[in-house]
Amino acid sequence: MNAVTHAGRMVGAGGLVAFPTETVYGLGADAFNERAVARIFSVKKRPRFDPLIVHIASPDQLALVTTGVPDTAKRLIEAFWPGPLTVIVEKSPKVPELVTAGLRGVGVRMPGNQIARDLIAAAQTPIAAPSANSFGGVSPTCADHVRADLGEHVDAIIDGGSCTVGIESTIISCMGPEPVLLRPGGIALEDIEKHVGPVDVPDQNEYKHASPGRIGRHYAPHTPVTLVDACRCPPVGKRTGLLSLRETGIEGAFYRVETLSRSGDLSEAACNLFSALKSLDAPGVDSIMAVRVPNTGLGRAINDRLMRAAKKHDSRVDV
Ligand code: TXA
Ligand code: MG
Question: CATH no. for residue 132?
Answer without folding.
Answer: 3.90.870.10
